[in-house]
Amino acid sequence: MVLGLQLSIARAGSTINMNVMKPIYDWLGHSYSGYQQLGVALMLASVVAGYDLVIGIVLAIRDTWAEKKLKIKEAKSEDKISPKDVKEFHLDYWTITAIIMFYYMTIFPFVSFGVYSDGLDHLLHPMSHSDTN
Fold it and tell me: Which chain regions cross the lipid bilayer (predicted)?
């Protein structure tokens, strides 16, 4: 469940990034031009990513502090995990892994081509093709 939640939040974040960065880039066009405009836009994105990293570190420290304060101990397992265990995975696991891998390998190029094609069909300006995504 945690992995699904993490993937959902990552997908939401990438969608927000895709839809927000172009207006920020355009807004910076009033003050900067050319490579400086791109550099400032990427610097703003880097600052947000750095902020996210700092918040993640703070949450990890607080989680460790809470575990110590509440005296929560993790369950210890006698089983040791090694890379050789991969060969023991069932065919079902490898089938699902291959399906997910091929899905993402095919869907992203298709979506990017579809957005471009949709923009041509509806006579959109090339800079606004990504808005249809």
Answer: 38-61, 93-116
